[in-house]
Design brief:
This protein has 131 residues and is of the alpha/beta class.
Length: 131
């Protein structure tokens, strides 16, 4: 299992989906909320709403997600952990282009890092059980 105390701030980021069930809206359609988090601090660096009609962030959304996250420390991390069942091919390509190593891991391995953010999101916005 990965724990925040294994990392220094900005050494590694984690890509996760904050919601389990789609977020339903009348005006903007249904979406999932993807987030980039710092693995050490568990700080959410950036988020991107992704329509449920898409399986992953688009190329533009992936670039924006990475750029917003990078703005916090003016650099990219060495490693980006991605839940192995989370579609993120375009974000992976963009991160690798920036020199970031990609590591796919089972979702339960990320729980100590992303669990609190997912639980807080669930409490605030409802939805199904967290992954």
């Amino acid at each position: 299992m990965l724990h925040p105390n294994q990392f220094r701030v900005n050494e590694a980021w984690v890509l996760c989906k904050l919601n389990d069930a789609p977020i339903l809206t009348d005006s903007d359609g249904d979406f999932n909320l993807f987030a980039l988090m710092d693995a050490a601090s568990c700080f959410i660096l950036s988020t991107a709403p992704v329509p449920t009609t898409q399986t992953e962030p688009s190329k533009t959304e992936a670039r924006r997600l990475l750029k917003k996250a990078q703005a916090h420390k003016q650099q990219f991390p060495k490693t980006l952990f991605i839940q192995n069942d989370l579609p993120a091919n375009l974000l992976t390509i963009e991160a690798e282009r920036q020199g970031v190593a990609i590591v796919c891991v089972p979702s339960d391995q990320l729980q100590p890092i992303v669990g609190e953010a997912r639980e807080s999101f669930k409490e605030r916005f409802g939805g199904g059980s967290t992954q």
